[in-house]
């Protein structure tokens, strides 16, 4: 299941931010990765919510400042990456 | 000085806050004064100011106007190639705040930090020209609005009056200052002697809300998308208890969200203002007083003090009969001098005489409230940014026959060519070119684009399909 959740998350990033599927996801961050502005951020939130069928709280929406943070937040919302 | 920033009565009051730094009005006046000296000269010159929402950009902008020069406020995130194109079109004598100018036409930055053109070959500038604003901040379009100092001052004062801005207000200035709405927030609040908190982070950044709490920000502005985002975040969840004044412009917000935020502000004994305007009118044309909600839900309000509105009809219409649709015409002291698309245009004076055909279809009700119905010009508003549909169409047409129409918050592009995969590739390229999120564009395949007898695209037919 490890790859499946990670792949889903990567797909959400590719689709919302327009980043390359072969990109260095672990280094992606809001305001730094080209294309990741506030508008793309809201698209990303909606992609992630749909992909994992979860509803993110405001603090999570605002706190999702990097790919790694996203992974952490999605995990906290009951999704397993292990 | 402009906006009475050097008024003695407010000298110890804080004018601008940027992170840990803050400037009183006294300090701001000093900062503007030395920059004004650096820009002084008998020949009228053009400054390209690549700006961000920080202390220095505000000071340079005010100083250039104070010095009687012309300043064009530019997006500092503008692509370097697009910026270079604009520089070669307008030949500004000074360039400030951009990445190094890739040209041997400019001397390296002097002590004040700006690039100086070697050959002063720009040509004359009309004495009244004070400010230039782009009609689209991110696409690098050469089309600018030409404004005089009186446009800027009168509109700031109209807004100050209509919103009852006082010196105790603390607005957050997060909309870009090269954007007419963002600039108007700064201008009107400086004029009122208020304390402005500059912000460069977006709404989805924790730092943005920390700054709002730390400085007791009570006034907020946004385009429709800002409010849709804020609705998703939840005003009660972002922990900004002091916010009690909200203004909205930059396109039409759905009535559901207007009612929602009006209710939120009412509960806080605050106010929510729906506004309408254009860069061509410096910024603001009309404002709906908060007290007229929910009675006038969907209206863009009444003209700002000093301005007047009427409807222009294709055919002769009965005088004084309300509620007839037509093009909205605005007259007022904030109407631009005209457009510019190249340096030679800067010699021009006032071409409009204070009367602006807005290109927006509207009706005015019996009580004088305007309702904006849509664009009659080929423009779309996407995430608060204006995009010209003909330019967009030209981009897509490189691949084959296509026609674009705008719906409320997106553009639908009808193509006689291409698979879904091909469309998604063009969509990504278009998004990158215009710097607008790709979700704003929808592609549809058609066998044949509908045409009129004249052979021209039948846009009405296409509009009916979206």
Explain this structure.
The complex is a heterodimer of chains A (82) and B (466). Chain A has 4 helices and no strands. Chain A is an all-alpha fold and 82 residues long. The longest helix of chain A is centred in the first third of the chain and has 16 residues, at 2-17. The model of chain A has no long low-confidence stretch (mean pLDDT 91). Chain B has 466 residues and is an alpha/beta fold. Helix content of chain B is 27%, strand content 26%. Chain B starts with 13 loop residues before the first strand and ends with a helix.
Which terms would index this structure?
heterodimer, A: 82 residues, mainly alpha, Non-ribosomal Peptide Synthetase Peptidyl Carrier Protein, Chain A, 4 helices, globular, B: 466 residues, alpha/beta, Rossmann fold, GMP Synthetase, Chain A, domain 3, 2 domains, 8-stranded mixed sheet, 5-stranded mixed sheet, 11 helices
